[in-house]
Amino acid sequence: MTDTILKVSGVSKRFGGLQALSDVGIQIQRGQVYGLIGPNGAGKTTFFNVITGLYTPDSGTFELGGKPYVPTAVHEVAKAGIARTFQNIRLFAEMTVLENVMVGRHVRTRTGLIGAILRTPGFKAEEKAIAERAMELLEYVGIAKYADYKARTLSYGDQRRLEIARALATDPQLIALDEPAAGMNATEKVQLRELIDRIRRDGRTILLIEHDVKLVMGLCDRVTVLDYGKQLAEGTPAEVQRNPKVIEAYLGTGGH
């Protein structure tokens, strides 16, 4: 049996008078692509932001790789082993493509501030290794030829790939993708699907929030559907598509 990478249960979150989440939980097994879908305002982004440390939950328990973690800050969650991308791409626009990935890799560095200031042999060796690993990841996502370009000069689809490369640079147990297909054309979506599929085949575990239901149903092993901050359904894509509550709330009469 595959082991559980992420186990989240009993998550609630209120913003003033709005109950954004009520007792929500998911369980993701190693090597799965797990989808989180729902209508606008369903609470999926709030849940995603709670898991990744952007919001502090009012209640809930969290385990990553069998160990408890507390999602109180994004950088602490990254150290724990969850890397995320954002719906609105957040790259260092004036840095090179290579430097953007190197920034992600620094989460796993050992050389301290003094070593960096003094540029010790240990620091230089580590920087060289970081640059080499960053280049490998750019090759992996298919944009190595742009390594020396400024990040802002990349096409929209390639900026998405860069964000994924930077997330992978942290060596995450779980990579969390927030609307990665948003704004993409049909060709870019096909390429994105191929990349996510490759990441999964290489043993990574992925949590995916996505409005493109066709993409989710074609990629994901399991799916959770949220509606008004509550868990409406959970199961395989086929099970979810047949669920009458899901059809009524989200997928439409035809289930598409």
UniProtKB/TrEMBL annotation:
Record's protein name: Lipopolysaccharide export system ATP-binding protein LptB
Catalytic activity, EC: 3.6.3.-
Top-level class of the enzyme under EC nomenclature: hydrolase
Highest taxon listed in the record's lineage: Bacteria
Keywords: ATP-binding, Cell membrane, Hydrolase, Membrane, Nucleotide-binding, Transport
UniProt GO molecular function: ATP binding; ATP hydrolysis activity; L-isoleucine transmembrane transporter activity; L-phenylalanine transmembrane transporter activity; L-valine transmembrane transporter activity
A GO BP annotation: D-alanine transmembrane transport
GO CC annotation terms, alphabetical: plasma membrane
Entry keyword Membrane: yes
InterPro entries in the record: AAA+_ATPase, ABC_AA/LPS_Transport, ABC_transporter-like_ATP-bd, ABC_transporter-like_CS, BCA_ABC_TP_C, P-loop_NTPase
Nucleotide-binding as UniProt keyword: yes
Domain ABC transporter: 6-253
